[in-house]
Write a structure and sequence with these properties.
Blueprint: E1 24-25, E2 43-44, E3 46-47, E4 60-66, E5 73-75, E6 78-83, E7 97-103, E8 112-117, H1 121-131, E9 139-141, E10 144-147, E11 151-152, E12 159-163, E13 172-176, E14 183-185, E15 192-195, E16 230-232, E17 237-244, H2 254-269, H3 285-307, E18 313-319, E19 326-331, E20 348-349, E21 353-358, H4 365-368, H5 378-388, E22 395-402, E23 412-414, E24 416-421, E25 424-429, E26 437-444, E27 483-490, E28 498-505, E29 519-522, E30 525-528, E31 534-538, E32 550-555, H6 565-570, H7 581-590, E33 595-601, E34 614-621, E35 626-635, E36 642-650, E37 660-666, E38 676-679, E39 688-694, H8 708-716, H9 721-731
Parallel strand pairs: 19-23
Antiparallel strand pairs: 1-6, 2-8, 3-38, 4-7, 4-39, 5-6, 7-8, 9-10, 10-11, 12-13, 13-14, 14-15, 16-17, 17-18, 18-19, 20-21, 21-22, 22-24, 25-26, 26-27, 27-28, 29-30, 31-32, 32-33, 33-34, 35-36, 36-37, 37-38
Amino acid sequence: MNKSVEKDDKLEKNSSFPRSVLSVSRVEFGLREDNPEAKYCPLKLLVKDGKQLPSGLQGHVFIISATGSVDSKSRDDNKDIVFPSSDGFTPFYNGDGMVYRFDFDNLEEGVFLTTRIAKTPCYYADAATNKCQPNLRFKNRGIMRMSDELGIRNQLNTGFLPMKFSQEDNERLLITWDIGRPYEIDTKTLEAVTPVGWDRDWRAFNPLLAKLPLQPPFPFKLVQTSAHPCFDENTGEMFTVNSGRSLSTFIAQLRPVLYWAFGLIDSIRNPSPRGFQKAPDQKNFFQKLAAAFKQTIHLLWSLLQSFNIFANFVYVISWDGKEKINKWQVTHPNGCPIAIKQSMHQIGLTEDYVVLMDTAFKFLLEEILPAPNEPKYEEIEKWLSNLIDRPQLPDSTIYIVRRTDLKSDVKKVVARQVVIPRETTHFLTDYKNPNDQITLHLAHVCAWDVAEWIREIDFSNSDNNGGLPHMFGMTVGPLDISRMGCYVLDAKDAKQIKVARSDLTGVYADNQPNKYCQDTQTNGKEYCKYTWGPALYAYRENPPSGHFENIYWSFFGCWEDIFTEEGFQMYQNYKYRAIPADEVRQLTKKGIKSNLLRLHIADLDTLEANENRLQIQDAYEFDTGYFGNSPQFVPRAGGTGGYIVCVVYNGTDEQPDNGNEIWIFDAADLKSGPLCKLWHPQLNFGISVHTTWLSKIGKRTASYNIPVKQDYEYLVKQQPQEIQEFFNEWVYPKREPKDSGDCSVS
């Protein structure tokens, strides 16, 4: 069955993105005493090419990935392998979060892999409805997975946050994503143990996504937060956000309204029973009239609330790991609520400030409620997408909150605003802010819209892609060269934040003395070949200086098969375009390789006044057809320096290694290539995302815990009897049917 892609010349050109990212294993590996549901023991990884593991490796690397859903299409010859985005509509970041832990604590025995799906209460609801109660079933809707009766899944598939509280011996670990409460996991068993904060502590993204008119509230509401909360080990505080907004843009309502109309027409043409069976109506005429009037008032009130500009909100949340969460609503100086137009994918923290940003991971209503993935809607959906969709905002809007304002006796705090040219998804902050100087490290994702993904409607029926499967679900590629930025904000003025200094790198002209920004030529012009699509980052934790000296970045590069004409047209007139759009098209067709680099940030005291403090000092360019992702810094045991561990994809899942490997680099010498490569026939990643490293793991001993039944009971008791019984049978006991024959309740 297996065949090597080396013999397939279709995959030799640089523009062919590795198809191995399209499949993923949902198998859990682990000790049975830690995870009774584990199918196999921890996986001992193999070392390629007879090389040795670096002796200085230590601790445990955690990587997270979306791994499809309970109803994802599986491979014919192996039901454990699924193709999460094969429907042509679902993005790769819609799926259950799988935690991968690589143990480097006993190198004499080898490197072992333990995996586990983050099983929140809504996971058990998803599994049970898929097998046993299809009228409640969850379905993929863009970035979300939603049930019309139960609400929105919290899939926890994006990031981690280690937390070391002073009173505890071991680090605790949060698992996160953008649209759900963070959860704490046990670092040894990998079980998702408890959410942070009670459900009632978190405000829904919008009233309509917590409770539809004329229906009881969803048991699982949509909560928007940050995939990258922060922890201050000096004060023992975790910080995150809870945000939401009004649905006040009329055009964004076109899609759900139109599809509601199409659905109504279908139901008239093909009537069928749906939903809950209603008891015979015993009301008299006046009771019915009063009920209709009450429902009309309720409907109008719900719509007014949903479109009210005061539905915009941002809360800063703090938590000490043992008590209830604290929260403060953030406003402008005039008292109006802050409106986040895209998302708050990442926040920052310094010793005196919380840094909030409207990040370039746009979260639009047309993505929340997209079309059904049915062929009959395809042309309408394509027309609507072109009409409704918009590019991400070209600037980074930042809000600064002073930590001393976060007092227990106040409910609102004022933020000061500053706008930095060019958009950003990921950024880091120096912890130290001497003289109220805040240093930000931004990866400007110039004309790179990671919230857009490859869909079936992006291609005509005649496009067979050279016989290769389309990259459905994959994020689209960059449409301009990206810039890496370092900014110093002056926060001394009580009213206004100013940009005191800005440094940028990324365009070849900025780096002529820099040998790691060599030429990529188009029409005789030279551009840096490294800074195309800054994806994920790594760094050494807690530098003694309190500021970053080196940040490691993985870059996507440019690939012809994750280029779409719709995306190109949307960003053709990008505000800060550095490279002409037509030349970007040519560069993408030729291909720019994925790479891993080290960006050095010089101390300002060592520079002349106009000298750029940013320099690419080391880089590794992956071979044709290889894609590197999810770098993680691991400090070297018993010495200085360290290693970069990352995931590398190539070829297809039909290779003996599934096209998935773990590469280990010397962090001080990326250019020399990997020290060793790890693999296993059963190692099968989807697109991996963020990572973390812990020096040791241990059974969780913290007492903080929110019981599932007590958390949701106030919502469940408002539901019809069928849903109340469903929660008692499946969700509260964390019960998962293995097949349809397991649906009976003992």
